[in-house]
Amino acid sequence: MAKKAVASLQKGEGRNHTKCIKMLKTENGYQFAEEMVLNEKVKEFFAKK
Q1: Residue 21 above 90 pLDDT?
Q2: What is the reported pTM?
Q3: Strand pairing partners for 17?
Q4: Where are the domains of the chain?
């Protein structure tokens, strides 16, 4: 199944998105924010806190 999902992202509209992972520091340690973002919005994703 994983191969099928990855293959579908490589064709068509999947190329317009990027998977972004951002590390956020909290008082208890670190958390990770993970999101599928349009290529044009990547900088905005990393700019917001």
Answers
A1: yes
A2: 0.60
A3: 38
A4: 16-49
